Amino acid sequence: MEVPAQGGARPALRSTTVIPARLASTRLPQKLLLSETGKPLLQHTYEAASRARKPAGLVVAADCEEIAAVVRGFGGRVELTSPDCASGTDRVAEIARKLPDDDVLVNVQGDEPEISAAAIDLAVEMLERDPQAVMSTLATPIRSKEQLHDPACVKVIFDRRGRAIYFSRAPIPFARNWEDSLLTAEPAHFYQHIGLYAYRREFLLQLAALPRAAIERIENLEQLRVLDAGHSITVGVIDEPTIGIDTPEDYRAFVERWRSREARHAA
Prior knowledge:
By secondary structure, the chain is of the alpha/beta class. It is 31% helix and 19% strand.
């Protein structure tokens, strides 16, 4: 794992991981409740997130009683949030209001059953290292041309201090003179943004009040609102992307990986 250098050690921050969870899903209906492995998808994410060392707590921010009942069923901590929340960020902010002693809230998507504990810990550590940043997020190298040009793959570029310069669905930086060796360079030239965020609590409570930026509307990327307002987002680099579950194909692939791991452990 590579971490951009950002000065000496800072005091530890008290943090809680929040998994915003809503029942509705367009491409894969009720995906958080899918349970071909014997566990709901949401439980896999909860158990993966629970392995992180930095956060002192873990809670699911549910949008309905059906989700809440599932979490209680596997012994997880859950809080019901308003069904009117416009985004997962708003659900995390609702939880933050109940945690006045926390410095940082980490937003882990409910459809990330293979999220690594190291990734969550790094997101908190980035804010400890960079006291000027209001948010942290993660990135991983892009090594294929198809991924680089896929608008569903959000790209990020950051400066030598590890602070985000821009996020885009377009290939950034754009190579005026393309060479395939650009994809294998070390350090990497192209990075995929991973949608895990850690927010300083005070900033998170203000985030919804920031006006939507023109670039945010064009790219449909909420994090651009933060950059447009002049705030700093620090970026940590990890070796592998987490794999979100968005389609039936994604879920089938996850189930196969899970079964393979279980078979290896049983051998």
